[in-house]
Amino acid sequence: GISKLGELIDLGVAGGIVDKSGSCFSYGDQRIGQGRENAKAFLRDNPDTAADIEARIRASSGLGDKPGDPATPAPDDESAAQLQRAVETSGARGFWTWHLERLNQSDAAGGRVPRSELAGAHAALGNADAAFGYLLQALARGEPGIFSLRADPAWDELRSDPRFPQLAREVRSMRFSPSRRGGNR
Questions:
Q1: DSSP letter at 161?
Q2: Cβ(128)–Cβ(158) under 8 Å?
Q3: Residues of the chain with pLDDT under 50
Q4: How far apart are the first and last CA of the chain?
Q5: Which residues touch 65 (CB under 8 Å, ≥6 apart)?
Q6: 170 Cβ contact list (under 8 Å, min separation 6)
Q7: What is the predicted pLDDT for the residue at 122?
Q8: CA separation for the pair 116, 172 (Å, rounded)
Q9: Is the whole-model pTM more than 0.70?
Q10: 27 with 53: CB under 8 angstroms?
Q11: Could you report the per-residue pLDDT of 130-169, keeping only the tens digit for each?
Q12: CB 131 within 8 A of CB 123
C-alpha cells in the first residue's frame, strides 16, 4: 500500500525539505527519527509538522502557495497569523481550512486557481463530493495536476469512493490523448 507519511518523507528528502544523513531524518533543526519507520511515527504523532512538510512539498512542486504566483500570492502578515492560529487550534485541518479559504478568495478575485488544487483541499477536509466536482472540472480543463491522481497520497481519502476508479480511467485516457490536454484554461 501507499503510506502518505512515508511519501512525505521520501518527497521531502527528494526536494531538500527533509534532511537525511545515513538513516537519520531531520526537518529543520528537529530530528524526526532514525529510520524511515521512526520518522513516519514521529509525523503521525506530530501532525502539524507533517502538514508543514506537506505544504512545503506542494509549494515546491507548484501545487500550492508560492510567492509571486498570481493564483495564490504569498500570505501577508495577517494571513500568516491566521494560519498560525488555525494550525495551533485545529492542526492539519486548520491548515487545509485556511488554504481552501485563500484559494476561494483568489478564485473569486479572478486568480488562476487550478481546480485540482481546490479538489485537493476539499479531499483533505473530507469533502468528497466537492473534491470530485473539482476533479471533474480539472479533467475537463485538461489540467496537468490531474495526472497525480493515481500516485499522490493527497487523494488517498478518495480512493475508496466508487467514483474514483472511473475518474482514474478517464485521466489515464486523457494522458494518452494530447488533444484532450489543455492546461489551466
A1: S
A2: yes
A3: 65-71, 178-185
A4: 34
A5: 55, 58, 59, 72, 74, 75, 99, 102
A6: 139
A7: 94
A8: 15
A9: no
A10: yes
A11: 999 999 998 888 887 787 787 777 788 899 999 999 998 8
A12: yes
Distance CA 149, CA 131 (A): 12
Other beta carbons less than 10 A from residue 139's beta carbon: 20
C-alpha grid cell, residue 138: 480539472
Alpha carbons 31 and 50: distance in angstroms, whole number: 13
How far is 49 from 78, CA to CA, in rounded Å? 21
* Whole-number Å distance between alpha carbons of 92 and 89: 10
For residue 135 the three cell numbers come to 476533479
Residue carrying C-alpha cell 491522481: 149
Query: 154 with 124: CB under 8 angstroms?
Result: yes
Provide the grid cell at 68: 509571486
Spell out the long-range contacts of 4-11 with Cβ–Cβ below 8 A and sequence spacing 24 or more. 4/153, 4/156, 5/40, 5/43, 5/44, 5/50, 6/36, 6/40, 7/153, 8/43, 8/50, 8/53, 8/54, 8/57, 8/153, 9/36, 9/39, 9/40, 9/43, 11/57
DSSP-assigned states of every residue in 19-84: EEETTEEEETTEEEEESHHHHHHHHHH-HHHHHHHHHHHHHHTTSS--TT-SSSPPP-HHHHHHHH
Residue 20, all three cell numbers? 537525511
181: left (phi over 0), alpha (psi -120 to 50) or beta: beta
